[in-house]
Amino acid sequence: MRYVSTRGNAPVLDFEGATLAGLAADGGLYVPEAWPTLSREQIADLAGLSYAETAVRVMLPFVGDSLSEDELRDLCERAYGTRFAHAAVTPLVQLDHRHWLLELFHGPTLAFKDVALQLLGLLFERFLTGRSEHVTVIGATSGDTGSAAIDALAGRTGVDIFMLHPHGRVSDVQRRQMTTVLAPNVHNIAIDGSFDDAQALVKAMFNAPDFAGRFHLSAVNSINWARLMAQVVYYFYTAVRLGAPERPVAFSVPTGNFGDVFAGYVAQRMGLPVAKLVVATNVNDILHRALSAGDYSTGTVTATDTPSMDIQVSSNFERLLHDLGGRDGAALALQMQGFETSRAMQLSGAHRDGAAALFTSARIDAGGMMGAMRWACERTGELIDPHTAIGLAAARELDIAPEVPVVTLATAHPAKFPDAVERATGHRPALPARVGDLFEREERCDRLPATFEAVTGYIAERAVARA
């Protein structure tokens, strides 16, 4: 298995190389050179398997010669063992005759990012063992990626992690899950700006030869292919339990950076019968506008009760455009350069037609979000977080064939957003006992202006340079 850049002008890498690189040298994102497929028989054979064994079978085609099957199995069994509070890792909960929740928040930081990042932390450790080089991981977070990445990498040898988050724009629980990890290799940076500013700074650092050349940079955001690969697994795990491959399944995904829903696209390309992928956005609706009207242009970020979705530039959308555009890296590079200059792009007919075959979208405002939280609480007894509520509202709003089960991805534990949940339902969710002392822990964080000079200067003082 070889990995190529979406922009067509970076070295072709194996899985290990793509994992350690994160972002491609030409500013693009790594994708497999071709999509592997699983036969109907292979998908049917996933029935009854544990989550870890399902992960091995789904991910094995992607790792190539970088890991043996036994090595991959060992990593999966370690990643999906005791760090998850539910034996199923990602259990399904039935809401009514056709709607389901896929609970992705049973990991150590109570969010779906744990499912991928617990494995990614082990992959970094495995690939760095025996090497003399030191890796500097740089990431941007709108809330959940930061805490999950920090938990996965804290204390690991050969790695430092610098995580940028927008000051005052993440929940108290999200912030504390990052800033109370006091391992010496963890560095939290609160920037005076938005998530888009943080994400732009990360990309700029990777693309600055004078800075990137001094350090071995890598990424834990969903720009890192290994993270998306790990998220593909739960689409297979879920669909098989609802009747796949004999029965198609639809998924509604609360969407910000397009990584989680793109993992569903990969599952479909691999042969999973996905009836529809619902891209559920809040009022920061660039993806809804792109999919419904072809208008991929940025606006002003509006702060909402769903901070992980307060995004205007969705990095992983580039991977979809690459695939739907015939994998023409040179053409996409020009298109993305134009977008980065003008902050606007009109999707081609091929892009729109290709997306329409699988994707649909909905823009859910604050009223729709609160209504979904109330419905889930009053009708099913389930408390759901605001992001999940965006997905559930979209799932219930859109016209999907009645015989198709619709699974909403429950991306975070409701206790990560207690104020919003209490406003909508009258019930204040409690933190699980395993993180119940979160508000008693010491915090450590540095606040910086959202400038390239300030952030790179901070990192350069603390990171380990290349030998």
Automatic annotation (TrEMBL):
User: What PROSITE patterns does UniProt report for this protein, alphabetically?
Assistant: DEHYDRATASE_SER_THR (PS00165)
Top EC class of this enzyme: lyase
Q: Which domain of life is it from?
A: Bacteria
Key words, A-Z: Amino-acid biosynthesis, Lyase, Pyridoxal phosphate
Give start and end of each Threonine synthase N-terminal domain: 2-80
Q: Sorted alphabetically, which InterPro entries does this protein's record hold?
A: Ser/Thr_deHydtase_PyrdxlP-BS, Thr_synth_N, Thr_synth_N_sf, Thr_synthase-like, Threonine_Synthase, TrpB-like_PALP_sf
* Pathway entry: Amino-acid biosynthesis
What Pfam families does the entry give? THR4_C, Thr_synth_N
Signal peptide segment: none
Catalytic function, reaction form: O-phospho-L-homoserine + H2O = L-threonine + phosphate
> What EC number(s) are associated with this protein in UniProt?
4.2.3.1
Question: What does the record give as cofactor?
Answer: pyridoxal 5'-phosphate
Q: Which GO terms describe its molecular function?
A: threonine synthase activity
**Which family would the database say this protein is a member of?**
Belongs to the threonine synthase family.
PANTHER family listed in its UniProt record = THREONINE SYNTHASE FAMILY MEMBER (PTHR42690), THREONINE SYNTHASE-LIKE 2 (PTHR42690:SF1)
In its UniProt entry, what is this protein called? Threonine synthase
The organism is: Sphingomonas molluscorum
Quote the gene name from the UniProt entry. Answer: thrC
